[in-house]
């Protein structure tokens, strides 16, 4: 009784129902052949074949009818007409085989596809369902999605992190591969950000929750990846439009064939082999798998269209600061001009010919700078305090070592690409490039220029500082080059990228020093944001498909103008994910050539699939016309070609 | 309100049209979008007129099993 009840409820579920239909229809076909072969009882076989065709055909007919009601001729309609026609002309076995194979194919196909569909969703289900929250020293286990902001969550060694948050106390290392694709564990100290779904390794930490449930970074990434997978590639849109006309066209064609040759069996066979099944699935299966695989490696390709463009990239433009370099600049050189020399110089022309003192700052060395150098830092620090430029931070930090209460400027103006003009009380401070000094009529003598060039050739970014129109000194800032920058450039070239161009706001010498070390051979220095955009447009005019790599914020205009904008280190920053066409979750530069390579592989895979689909239809058509292919055989080969296309697409999982 | 359903039954992209059209005809459904690639069915609907469970039922009607999903 219970079994029957079970079957009855399961029949309400279309997936379960199809399984029963498939099983029953298959059994009837086997029994039918058994009767025919063992006892030569053909009537019995025919009866069983009719039953099998009706059973398997029930579901196909249902879907065909649903399509017709929506004024669409779908694949199910083709199969239904063929099967009914087969029964009408007495080809019972053919009808049974066609419907059974079609149902079996659909079953296999959806099972295989779901394996790909679910790879990402498994990630979210891997995030623990419960969290241990701390309330005044008592521990309580609650559903992870119910954790409120600011609640303290206890995370034990070896357990998965249930929410996004910041470490309040404790030290540990965390395997963040679920979010970033980066296999190496990351050290976490109080204040560090942690993400739901990542794996705590060795330490006990307390985390203040910031986001839970479907708001976590992991959930957002998965949602983004799914949206990317759903975004149709131009090829896919074309094929779907094509299929919408193709299917009714096949019906018309078959009818025409019937009137020409008067052969009903041939007509029905044409319907069966005309199914565009392999063709319509050729693109989506590659894109789901390609984008899914890329996402697992920490590369979010934002959709089919971007994927197709990324595969055709022939030039890559790179920002320097924060992309080729770490973006964590450090003050390395303090060069102060001697005030008494300045006073003795020819003040009338504002030309100074100072002798200077050069201090090199070590990473951890205890420095004891003389007064004049400290004063240089003091004034520079005040001016830079108002700025959000990445180079400001090390200057302000260094100044604050000596002047804990560094004042804010009263007035502040930043000229992008040049420098800063600031006022503090009655003093006027100017910090920036040589050009910026000269714009204000402050001349820079050859001796200082030589020193600046020398520093720049070592890869330093150099700024000058002047107080009330008198130069105080020069500061050298160094931003270490990322260790994998050279490998990235080499791999881009190996992948067939013809032009690799560095676009930077920094000066020529510094830029060239970084370029030489990383293997970039084209440098455009002193670029304002609009110049970068122009440079991209120029490359496009020369016929290149251009990718621009940047941090997604400062380089936004150039990234938008490029055919593909690639943002680095996008975890946790929504803007970068929003603006980029490809967002890289880590700071690992080799993901750039990897993302382009994955795109190319996916596009190739799509082409292979389309070739398989079209070649199968052509071969089958030829076979039908010369009489060697019949309905059941045609359906078998058709279903095999669909499976072949799916399996070929799924190969990308291991790319 | 917006409800997300997920179906594991979609084996070919043309299924999408049938489900989409069927859902869009239901009174109380503002907009239904079906994604073949991920098997996601997004439905904007008036909760008072048509419930989540009725949506699942409607998809079933077209011949596909689905379930309500958080996202």
Element layout with pairings:
The complex is a heterodimer of chains A (655) and B (71).
Chain A: H1 2-12, H2 14-39, H3 42-69, H4 75-88, H5 92-126, E1 130-135, E2 138-143, E3 152-155, E4 164-169, E5 172-175, H6 177-180, E6 186-188, E7 193-194, E8 199-200, E9 205-211, H7 217-230, H8 234-261, H9 264-273, H10 277-296, E10 299-301, H11 304-310, E11 315-319, H12 320-324, E12 330-337, H13 339-344, E13 356-360, H14 371-385, H15 392-402, E14 411-415, E15 419-424, E16 427-432, H16 434-439, H17 446-457, E17 461-467, E18 470-478, H18 485-494, E19 499-503, H19 508-518, E20 522-524, H20 529-541, E21 546-550, H21 556-561, E22 564-567, H22 574-579, E23 582-584, H23 591-625, H24 631-650
Parallel strand pairs in A: 11-19, 11-21, 19-20, 21-22, 22-23
Antiparallel strand pairs in A: 1-2, 1-3, 3-9, 4-7, 4-9, 5-6, 5-8, 10-23, 12-13, 12-18, 14-15, 15-16, 16-17, 17-18
Chain B: E1 2-7, H1 15-25, E2 29-35, E3 40-45, H2 52-62, E4 66-69
Antiparallel strand pairs in B: 1-3, 1-4, 2-3
């Amino acid at each position: 009784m219970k079994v029957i009840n079970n079957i009855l409820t399961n029949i309400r579920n279309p997936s379960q129902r199809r399984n029963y239909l498939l099983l029953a229809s298959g059994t009837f076909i086997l029994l039918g052949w058994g009767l025919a072969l063992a006892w030569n009882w053909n009537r019995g076989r025919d009866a069983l074949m009719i039953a099998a065709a009706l059973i398997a055909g029930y579901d196909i007919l249902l879907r065909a009818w649903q399509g017709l009601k929506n004024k669409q001729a779908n694949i199910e309609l083709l199969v239904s007409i063929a099967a009914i026609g087969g029964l009408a002309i007495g080809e019972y076995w053919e009808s049974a085989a066609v419907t059974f194979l079609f149902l079996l194919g659909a079953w296999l196909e959806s099972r295989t596809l779901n394996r790909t569909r679910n790879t990402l969703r498994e990630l979210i289900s891997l995030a623990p369902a419960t969290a241990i929250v701390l309330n005044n020293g008592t521990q309580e286990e609650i559903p992870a999605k119910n954790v409120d902001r600011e609640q303290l969550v206890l995370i034990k060694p070896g357990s998965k992190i249930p929410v996004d948050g910041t470490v309040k106390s404790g030290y540990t290392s965390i395997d963040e591969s679920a979010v970033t694709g980066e296999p190496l564990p990351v050290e976490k100290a109080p204040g560090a950000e942690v993400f739901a779904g990542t794996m705590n390794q060795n330490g006990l930490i307390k985390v203040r929750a910031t986001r839970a449930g479907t708001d976590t970074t992991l959930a957002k990434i998965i949602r983004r990846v799914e949206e990317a997978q759903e975004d149709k590639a131009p090829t896919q849109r074309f094929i779907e439009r094509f299929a919408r006309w193709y299917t009714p066209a096949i019906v018309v064609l078959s009818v025409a064939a019937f009137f020409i040759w008067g052969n009903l069996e041939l007509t029905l066979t044409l319907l069966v082999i005309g199914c565009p099944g392999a063709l319509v699935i050729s693109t989506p299966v590659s894109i789901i798998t390609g984008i899914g695989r890329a996402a697992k490696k920490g590369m979010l390709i934002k959709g089919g269209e971007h994927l197709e463009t990324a595969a055709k990239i022939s030039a890559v433009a790179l920002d320097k600061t924060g992309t080729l370099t770490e973006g964590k600049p450090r003050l390395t050189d303090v060069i102060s001009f001697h005030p008494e020399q300045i006073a003795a110089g020819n003040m009338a022309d504002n030309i100074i010919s100072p002798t200077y003192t050069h201090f090199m700052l070590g990473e951890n060395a205890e420095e004891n700078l003389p007064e004049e150098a400290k004063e240089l830092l003091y004034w520079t620090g005040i001016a830079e305090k108002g700025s959000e430029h990445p180079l400001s931070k090390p200057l302000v930090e260094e100044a604050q070592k000596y002047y804990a209460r560094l004042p804010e400027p009263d007035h502040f103006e930043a000229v992008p690409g040049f420098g800063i003009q600031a006022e503090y009380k009655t003093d006027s401070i100017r910090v920036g490039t040589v050009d910026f000094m000269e714009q204000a009529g402050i001349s820079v003598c050859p001796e200082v220029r030589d020193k600046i060039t020398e520093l720049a050739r070592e890869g330093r970014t150099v700024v000058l500082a002047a107080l009330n129109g008198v130069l105080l000194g020069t500061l050298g800032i160094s931003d270490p080059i990322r260790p994998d920058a050279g490998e990235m450039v080499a791999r881009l070239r190996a992948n067939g990228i013809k032009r690799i161009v560095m676009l930077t706001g920094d000066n020529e010498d510094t830029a060239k020093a970084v370029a030489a070390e990383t293997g970039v051979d084209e440098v455009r220095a002193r670029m304002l944001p609009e110049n970068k955009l122009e440079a991209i447009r120029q490359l496009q005019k020369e016929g290149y498909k251009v990718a621009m790599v940047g941090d997604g914020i400062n380089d936004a205009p150039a990234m938008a103008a490029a055919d593909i904008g690639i943002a680095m280190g996008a975890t946790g920053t929504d803007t970068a994910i929003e603006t980029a066409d490809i967002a890289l979750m880590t700071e690992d530069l080799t993901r750039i050539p990897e993302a382009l390579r994955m795109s190319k592989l996916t596009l190739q895979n799509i082409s292979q699939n389309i070739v398989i689909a079209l070649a199968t239809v052509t071969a089958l058509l030829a076979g039908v016309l010369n009489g060697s292919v019949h309905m059941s055989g045609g359906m078998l080969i058709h279903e095999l070609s669909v499976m072949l296309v799916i399996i070929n697409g799924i190969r990308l999982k291991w790319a | 309100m917006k409800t997300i359903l997920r179906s594991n039954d979609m084996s070919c992209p043309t299924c999408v049209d049938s489900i989409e059209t069927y859902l869009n005809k239901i009174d109380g459904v503002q907009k239904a979008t079906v994604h073949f690639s991920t098997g996601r069915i997004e439905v904007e609907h008036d909760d008072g007129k048509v419930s989540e469970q009725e949506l699942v039922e409607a998809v079933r009607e077209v011949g596909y099993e689905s379930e309500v999903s958080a996202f």
